[in-house]
Every structure is written in structure tokens, then in C-alpha cells.
Amino acid sequence: MGSGQRSLTTAAIALVCAVTVLSAPGTAFASASAPKPPPAPSSGGQGGGDASADAKNSADGGSTDGSSAGTPPTSTEDTATDAQLEAVQEKLDKLYHQAAVATDAYNAAEEKAESQSARIAELNRQIDAAKAKLGELQDRAGAAARAQYRGGTLPPEMQLWLSEDPQKFLDGAQLARQGQQATMGLIDELKQTKTDLGKLSSDASDRYEKLEANRKEKASAKKRVKKRIAAAETLQDQLEAKEKERLAKLEEEAARQAQTAWLDSGVLKDVNTKASAAGREAVAFATDQIGKPYVWGAEGPNSYDCSGLTSQAWLAAGHAIPRTSQEQWKRLPHVALADMRPGDLIIYFEDASHVAMYLGDGKIVHAPRPGRTVTIAGAGTMPILGVVRPDA
């Protein structure tokens, strides 16, 4: 058995193990933003390929002709290799898609935790202010009580009868009534401050509980991201250099075919809108990041994930938008594909797990996945869920 066949057998074993441990439902997250090319026909079956079976069919005169990427194979071994590589690519797509979904969950939990932390800090400031006010009111109430005790030895009628200047007494009585009203107001304010302090303390306690829940969710999502990426990297490490090169060519060809089919559908026939001023700024920021690596959870300036790139690009253009692709899809205004313009965001996959920025002429700029860099690609290389406009 040649070294290529040994490495592919190892890859197939790793693939089976990865499927057993990490299989989960969901649309594949296209590496290099491309759907999987159709597999080459073989009697060994699709998705993994049996090299010995294909070799036997070839020896028996059975046909193994055909290529999944549009390039005719030069030998039986090439056909088997392509079939196995397609199975590896399919699993890689699933793993990176699962990593993208987990990344969105991580980003959402992080955003919530930051919001809760900010709210807790504000509540603590309000609690401190309420405590200070409560202390001041208690001092004033105590002073008023002491003054009333010292001046309350005779009833008002007796004070009036004994007074040498009745008018002066009446003026003093009026002031006394005003003082009593002020005292009652002080008592009411004291009660309200105590009530407000209790509500603030209760709200802060609830916020702390939510913050802890968000931190746990964030930690769990982080583990899922790392696990999927590690599994994908392990799977790729089983391939030899020539197999990685062939896998990249299959991937590129699949992306080209998908983009061509999308353009041939006439989808851009009526798309001729120009970018807004803010859209041009967002595009300029995003394209300036080309070549920077994808890092999950990153928002720049040296690395980005898909929604980190789009959110920061629009922030630079003066529009704060949601952090995650799923929230961008939920909360930003939707526009028809035929009405999209440069700067708009294209949301991909049914679960809105990926986002890119439209550049015009059927192209996007995006941060694809781990191991890749911010790049320009065809807008039709992934299944489009819809388009949203941050500055609608």
C-alpha cells in the first residue's frame, strides 16, 4: 500500500471516530465558503470511498470514470482519492459549521455578560447614592425629632395665652405648621428611599445571577468551539501535502461552480443600486482587513470572526449593530436580494450562522473560518438566507 493510501486510510479511520463522537445536525459550514462538490461515482459508495473495491472494479473492467470537481481522473487511485477527500471535506464542513454556531453562542453570551456587568455597575452606583441619601435623611429626621421634643413642653393654646405678642406667636405657629409638613415630607421621602434601595438591591441580585448564567454559557460554548476546531485540525493533519493540495483544488472548483450557477440564474440582473455614504465607509473598513486571520470570538483589530468583521465595519461607519450573525439577521431591516447594495450584509445558512458584506458585482468580503484569512469571495458560494441593511 502506497503512502498516499496509508494516509487516506488513517483519515478515513479518523473520520469515522469524529462522526461517532461529534456528529450533530446542521447545515455544513462551507470551508472557503463553498458547498461540497458532487462525488465521483464509484461502486464503493459515496462518502468515504473504498479504495480496494474501486481497484477491484477497475481490474474487473468496471467503470470508475468521472470526477467530482469537473477534472477527469488520471487513474483509478485518483478516483478513490477524490471520493475519500470529498468525505473528509464533508466532515470538515460539518465541524466548522458546528464551530461557527458555537462561536455565535459564545459571542452572544459574552455580549450579554458585558451588558449585565455594565448594568450591575450602574446599579451599584445607584445603591451607593441611595444609601448616602438615606443616611442624610435619617440625620435630618433625627434633628427634627430632637427639636420637636425640646420645643413641645406646652400646648399651642397655652403658648398663645401666655404670649406677650399674640401676632408673633401666630406667625410662629404658621412656621411650626410648615415645619410639621416638612417633617412629614421628610418621613415620606425616607420611606421611599428605603423602598428604592430595596428594589435596587433585588435588581442587582438578579443581575448577578444572570451574569453567572451567561458566564457558564460562554464557557460551555468556548469548549464546543475548541472541540470542533481541534477535531477538524486532527482530521486535516491525517492528510499528506499532496492530498491537502488536491482537497483545496476540489474546494475551489466547487466554489467556482456554485458561483457560476448562482450568477447564471440571473439573480443580479436587476441589482444596480449604489452604496450609501455609510455603506462605502463600511466596505472600506472591511476590505482594509483583508489578509488578517480568522479567530473565533475576535473583533479586531488584528483578527476577526465573521460577525466581528461586519459589526466593527459598520461601527466604523457610525452604526452600532448586533454582535452576532443571528442577531444581525433578527434585528436589522431585511431587504430583497434584488435591492441589495454594497455594504449590505448577506446572511448564510438556515441557522444564520455566517455573515458577509456585499461588495457589488456578485462579490463579498468575509472572515470564512479558522485557518483562513479575511478574503473576497463569490456571494453565491454558500446558501443565502437573506440580506439585511444596517443603515436602512
From TrEMBL:
User: Could you tell me which residues belong to the region Disordered?
Assistant: 28-89
Q: Where is the composition biased (Low complexity)?
A: 51-76
- PROSITE patterns on file: NLPC_P60
> Sorted alphabetically, which InterPro entries does this protein's record hold?
NLP_P60_dom, Papain-like_cys_pep_sf, PG_Endopeptidase_C40
Q: Please list which residues make up the signal peptide.
A: 1-30
Identify the keywords attached in UniProt to this record, alphabetized.
Coiled coil, Hydrolase, Protease, Signal, Thiol protease
Coiled-coil regions listed: 208-261
Instruction: Please give the superkingdom of this protein's source.
Output: Bacteria
Query: Residue limits of the NlpC/P60 domain?
Result: 276-392
PANTHER family noted in UniProt: NLP_P60 DOMAIN-CONTAINING PROTEIN-RELATED, PEPTIDOGLYCAN DL-ENDOPEPTIDASE CWLO
Family of the protein in this entry: Belongs to the peptidase C40 family.
The name this protein carries in UniProt is NlpC/P60 family protein
